[in-house]
Automatic annotation (TrEMBL):
Keywords: DNA-binding, Transcription, Transcription regulation. It holds the Pfam family DUF6597. Residues 144-245 form the HTH araC/xylS-type domain. The keyword DNA-binding applies. SUPFAM superfamilies: Homeodomain-like (SSF46689). This is AraC family transcriptional regulator. InterPro entries: AraC_XylS_family_regulators, DUF6597, Homeodomain-like_sf, HTH_AraC.
Length: 251
């Protein structure tokens, strides 16, 4: 499943009555298949098996009570390539997986709960996904090209503009836009900006001591005020405040 799946993950919590922990995560250009039991997100209804599309804002979940989550994080574009979906239909949405994924995959998820060992959860779901995967003979050339672009965005921090991607991969702007809309659900500019913002956060986490203006320029923002607004919207704190807080409480 490595062509489509990035990783499997599990989360559980058991909090006393009245205690709420607000979990906050930076958004990634990935879709997730999850089974969520207990006190779940407000977006999860009676069916615990859901698909979460790319979230364009800071991903926040108020954790309370007792809950258990097991999930598959697809590679960028992986869910659309695997299931033949239009990823743009899922952007900023949480929807039941039933009817969108093969019934065998949904059933495998529905049969998982906190009594099943983590390794067994992975084995069962990986087997269900593998049995339902699309044929690879010939391959999906658009998806393969998309993965190459995504890998390049992640590996090369000097890529700051979509035009650089178009030139390096010899791909027309309109085709690149269509490819990202179909497979990822957001445009290449958004994905590139998110990856560079993640780089900026990692710099601050690693003890960056330069100016915020230099940090902004390094990752493609030539207006420090614009960078500060984008950082604050995504992280929940201004860059300088975030650095000061991390210095006081490393890790």
């Amino acid at each position: 499943m490595a062509d489509w799946v990035e990783n499997y993950w599990r989360l559980r919590w058991d909090l006393p009555d009245g205690v709420v922990y607000r979990s906050s995560t930076l958004p990634h250009p990935s879709c997730t298949l999850s089974v969520e039991r207990g006190v779940t997100r407000s977006e999860v209804g009676a069916d615990p098996v859901v698909l979460t599309g790319v979230v364009r804002h800071r991903f926040e979940v108020p954790a309370r009570g007792r809950s258990w989550v097991f999930a598959v994080k697809f590679r960028p574009g992986g869910l659309a390539a695997f299931a033949g979906l239009d990823a743009a239909r899922l952007t900023d949405r949480v929807v039941p997986a039933r009817g969108l994924l093969p019934a065998s995959v949904v059933t495998a998820c529905a049969n998982l709960d906190e009594t099943v060992a983590d390794e067994c959860c992975v084995t069962r779901l990986d087997a269900a996904l593998t049995a339902a995967r699309p044929p690879t003979s010939g391959g999906d050339t658009d998806y393969r090209q998309l993965l190459g672009v995504i890998d390049d965005m992640l590996a090369d921090r000097t890529l700051l503009r979509v035009g650089q991607i178009e030139q390096r991969h010899d791909i027309a702007a309109r085709r690149l836009q269509r490819m990202f809309a179909r497979y990822v659900g957001v445009g290449p500019k958004w994905v590139l900006a998110r990856y560079r913002m993640h780089d900026a956060v990692r710099e601050l986490d690693g003890g960056y001591t330069g100016t915020i203006a230099d940090l902004a320029t390094r990752y493609g923002w030539y207006d420090q005020a614009h960078f500060a607004r984008a950082f604050t919207d995504l992280v929940g704190a201004a860059p300088g405040d975030y650095r000061d807080r991390h210095a006081r409480h490393p890790g």
